[in-house]
Design a protein that fits this description.
- Helix 8 (187-201) runs antiparallel to helix 9 (206-217).
- The protein folds into three domains: 4-137, no CATH class; 148-222, no CATH class; 224-283.
- With 288 residues, it is α/β, with parallel strands linked by helices.
- The chain is 49% helix and 12% strand.
- The protein is built from twelve helices and seven strands.
- 30% of the residues are buried.
- The chain is elongated, with a radius of gyration of 24 Å.
């Protein structure tokens, strides 16, 4: 059965595949940022009944014109059979798609990461025919991000940091930085990464710390301050649209827009601003 932490690890790369390139650049490995990313089928089953499925498979195209496949595997325990499966994935995908694959393994434990990173040779010891070299992300090379401003600059990487350092004694500081950073983005995106973090922490003790932080910090999204800031932002968008369309905005209309605090009303006005012939058309319904 796929664990929650296993699921979260590869979902981060689906949410933001660029986190792969950014992380490895910090390790001085030459992976360029993607300019296009495609989610590929994960089922590698052939005619035979044996089912083979990778966690996540992405096609990454870069500005240089080069492309590669990114195979993401989350590994929670040592499994002597797994390197053989990984070698199969790499060879099969290279033959199927004709572009080079990269195998990325994510771990939460340093010893697990060291095990996964070892080259795996196929063939006799005196003449290996194929050698598998996975790239591994874990607590040994993913930075421990404890600065909220640094976390806010790259929330996917901060999320990956929290998950891979789940067993680190310093994880409370990492989680706190991420919790603060989530306040700087929209509520929907924040909730996605908050849920990914909770899933990724799994049964680690850090999961309880995270749940407590979310109970306190994500109340920000329901606070009066949050409501006011979102209302102000929506009002600014309405005025900008009207201005860009060359419509006159009387003082009475401007005041009505900027003093409104009801997000549903502002959403209606925002929609109307795209097609209205005059600013007053925003308030056409009785009761507006």
């Amino acid at each position: 059965m796929v664990s929650s932490s296993h699921e979260a690890m590869h979902r981060i790369f689906q949410e933001d595949p660029g986190v792969f390139a950014r992380t490895f650049r910090r390790l001085d490995l030459p992976f360029p940022d993607p300019v296009a990313v495609s989610l590929m089928p994960t089922d590698l089953t052939e005619i035979q009944p044996t089912e083979r499925r990778v966690d996540t498979l992405l096609r990454i195209d870069t500005a240089s014109g080069e492309s590669h496949l990114l195979i993401v595997e989350a590994q929670g325990k040592k499994d002597p059979r797994k390197p053989g499966s990984w070698a199969y994935y790499v060879a099969h995908l290279r033959e199927k798609y004709g572009i080079p694959p990269v195998l990325l393994v994510t771990c939460q434990d340093r010893s697990m990461a060291e095990w996964a990173a070892k080259p795996y040779a196929i063939g006799p010891s005196y003449w290996p025919t194929l050698t598998l070299r996975p790239l591994v992300l874990g607590p040994h090379n993913v930075p421990a991000i404890t600065d909220p401003s640094a976390a806010a600059r790259d929330i996917p990487l901060a999320t990956l940091s929290a998950i891979t350092h789940a067993k680190d004694p310093n994880v409370p500081a990492i989680l706190k930085a991420l919790a603060v950073a989530l306040k700087t983005i929209d509520e929907e995106t924040a909730r996605i990464f908050a849920e990914l973090t909770e899933l990724g922490l799994g049964k680690a003790l850090a999961a309880e710390t995270w749940r407590h932080l979310m109970a306190v910090d994500l109340s920000f999204f329901r606070s009066e301050t949050s409501q006011r800031l979102r209302a102000e932002s929506r009002a600014e968008d309405i005025l900008l649209i009207l201005t860009e369309r060359g419509l006159d905005i009387p003082d009475t209309a401007r005041e009505r827009i900027t003093t409104c605090t009801d997000l549903d009303t502002l959403r209606t006005w925002l929609t109307r601003a795209v097609t209205a012939d005059a600013a007053e058309d925003l308030f056409a319904d009785a009761g507006d």
